[in-house]
From TrEMBL:
Membrane-traversing stretches: none
Family annotation (InterPro entries): CobW-likC_sf, CobW-like_C, CobW/HypB/UreG_nucleotide-bd, P-loop_NTPase, Zinc-reg_GTPase_activator
GO cellular-component term (any): cytoplasm
Residues covered by the CobW/HypB/UreG nucleotide-binding domain: 29-221
Protein family membership: Belongs to the SIMIBI class G3E GTPase family. ZNG1 subfamily.
Catalytic activity: GTP + H2O = GDP + phosphate + H(+)
Residue span(s) of domain CobW C-terminal: 319-380
Protein name as catalogued: CobW-domain-containing protein
MF annotations from Gene Ontology: GTP binding; hydrolase activity
Key words of the record: Chaperone, GTP-binding, Hydrolase, Nucleotide-binding, Zinc
C-alpha cells in the first residue's frame, strides 16, 4: 500500500454548536466532481481526504461498497447508527459524509453542520451530466430549500480517463445527440486527464488537444492518481471571477493537425462532431452594442436560435449552448464577466481586475456551432451603432 491509499485516521466527531462567527454566515463553496466511469474520481477524493492540505473539506460520495478503503470505513461506521447517514471528521480536518440519499438531501444534512468545514465536494455518479446540478446551485436564491443562500458553486471538475477517454469521446461523438462524456467536458471548469502513467506521452498530448478543442476555457491538468495541487481545484471561483480564456487558438499550440481544425485565422472553431466550441474576440463595446450582445445571448440561450433566424432554419444544425463564458470591455474601461450554464446566464461587473484588456472574449460550448453562421451573426452585433 502506498501513501495515497493510506486509510485515514478517524476521530470521533464532536457535535458543533451553532457558530455565529463570520465563517458560519458566508456561503460555502461547492465543487462538483464528475468524470468518466472508472476515471479516478474516488482516487482523487481519497487523496483530498487523506492529504494534509489545511483545508476543511466536506466530501459527499455517492457510491459506496467498492474496494475503496475510506468508503468501506464510512459504511461500517454508518451502519452502527440508526441513521442512514454519518459524518466523520478525519484527522486532516476534512469531513466525510456518506449519505445513501445523495444530492440535495445530502447537502441539506451537511449544511446543518455549517462551520465545521469550509468547502464541499460533491461526487456525481460516473457519466452523469453535471449541467443540471451545476445550474441548480448556481444563482439559486429562490432555491426551494434555501440552499442557494448557503452555498455558492465554485466549479465543476471533470476527471477524464487517459486510457479509455479518447475511445469514449469518439463513441459519444458518433451518436446523434452529444453523449454524456462530451457534455461532461463541455460543462467542466477544470479537467483532469488522469492515468497518464498508463499511456504514451504522444497519446496524452493528442487527448489534451481534443479536450482543449472541446472546451478551450478549462485548464487541463495531466495527472497520476489525481495528484494536482489542491489550490488548482478548489477556490477557483469559476462562476464569479473573470474567466481565464485562451489568448489564442489553443489548437495552434499543439500539433494535432489530424483533428478537424479549420485553420481560419480568427475567430476559431473547433469541431468534434456533436459538441464543439467557438472562441470569438469581442471588440471594445459601446452601451448599445452591449445591449445588442445581451439580446443576442438571450435569444441564443433561451430560444436556441440566432437572432433573425427562424426555428426551421435552425433545424438542421440545432443550436444549443451548454456553457458560455466571456469577458467584455466597454469604452468606459469597465469590464464585465459573462457566465452561463445552459439557459441561465449572468453578466456582472468583473471583480479584482488588473489593467484593461484591448478586447473582450466570448467562448460558447454546445451544439450547432459549426460553419460560420454563428460567428457572422455575432459580427452583426458589433455592427450595432
Ligand atoms: N495506473 C493508474 N491507476 C489509476 C489512476 N487513478 C486511478 N487508478 C485506478 O483506477 C481504478 C478506478 O479508479 P476510481 O478512483 O475508483 O475511479 P472512479 O472514477 O471513482 O470510478 P467509478 O466511480 O466506478 O466511475 C482504481 O483501481 C484506481 O486505483 C492513475 O492515475 N493511474
Amino acid at each position: 500500500m502506498n501513501d495515497d491509499e493510506e486509510i485515514p485516521t478517524l476521530i470521533e466527531h464532536v457535535e458543533e454548536t451553532a457558530d455565529t462567527s463570520s465563517s458560519a454566515t458566508r456561503r460555502v463553496p461547492l465543487t462538483i466532481i464528475c468524470g468518466f466511469l472508472g476515471a479516478g474520481k474516488s482516487t482523487l477524493l481519497r487523496r483530498i481526504l487523506t492529504e494534509h492540505h489545511g483545508f476543511r473539506i466536506a466530501v459527499i460520495m455517492n457510491e459506496f461498497g467498492d474496494t475503496a478503503d475510506i468508503e468501506a470505513k464510512t459504511i461500517n461506521v454508518a451502519s452502527e447508527g440508526q441513521e442512514s447517514e454519518e459524518f466523520l471528521e478525519l484527522a486532516n480536518g476534512c469531513l466525510c459524509c456518506s449519505i445513501k440519499d445523495t444530492g440535495i438531501a445530502a447537502i441539506e444534512k451537511l449544511m446543518q453542520r455549517k462551520g465545521a468545514f469550509d468547502h464541499i465536494l460533491l461526487e456525481t455518479t460516473g457519466l452523469a451530466d453535471p449541467g443540471p446540478i451545476a445550474s441548480l446551485f448556481w444563482h439559486n436564491e429562490e432555491f426551494a430549500m434555501g440552499l442557494g443562500r448557503d452555498i455558492t458553486l465554485d466549479g465543476v471538475i471533470c476527471v477524464v480517463d487517459a486510457v479509455f477517454g479518447p475511445q469514449q469521446m469518439k463513441e459519444d461523438s458518433e451518436t446523434a445527440t452529444a453523449g454524456e462524456s462530451l457534455r461532461q467536458i463541455a460543462g467542466a471548469d477544470i479537467i483532469l486527464l488522469n492515468k497518464v502513467d498508463l499511456v504514451q506521452p504522444e497519446s496524452v498530448e493528442e487527448t489534451v488537444g481534443i479536450l482543449q478543442g472541446l472546451n478551450p476555457a478549462a485548464p487541463v491538468y495531466r495527472t497520476v492518481r489525481g495528484a494536482v495541487e489542491i489550490k488548482r481545484l478548489l477556490g477557483v471561483h469559476a462562476y464569479a471571477a473573470a474567466p481565464t480564456l485562451p489568448e489564442q487558438d489553443p489548437g495552434h499550440d499543439h500539433d494535432h493537425d489530424d483533428l478537424e481544425h479549420q485553420h481560419a485565422p480568427e475567430p476559431t472553431h473547433y469541431e468534434l462532431r456533436g459538441i464543439s466550441s467557438l472562441l470569438v474576440t469581442v471588440p471594445v463595446l459601446s452601451p448599445p452594442q452591449l445591449e445588442a450582445l445581451d439580446e443576442w445571448i438571450r435569444t441564443v440561450l433561451w430560444e436556441q436560435r440566432l437572432p433573425g433566424e427562424s426555428s426551421s432554419e435552425n433545424a438542421n444544425a440545432k443550436l444549443s449552448i451548454l456553457r458560455c463564458k466571456g469577458l467584455f470591455v466597454l469604452h468606459s474601461g469597465s469590464q464585465l464577466v459573462l457566465q452561463g450554464v445552459r439557459n441561465i446566464y449572468e453578466i456582472s461587473e468583473a471583480q479584482d481586475t488588473i489593467g484593461v484588456p484591448d478586447a473582450g472574449k466570448l467562448v460558447l460550448i454546445g451544439t450547432g456551432l459549426g460553419g460560420s453562421r454563428v460567428r457572422q451573426s455575432l459580427e452583426r452585433v458589433w455592427g450595432t451603432k
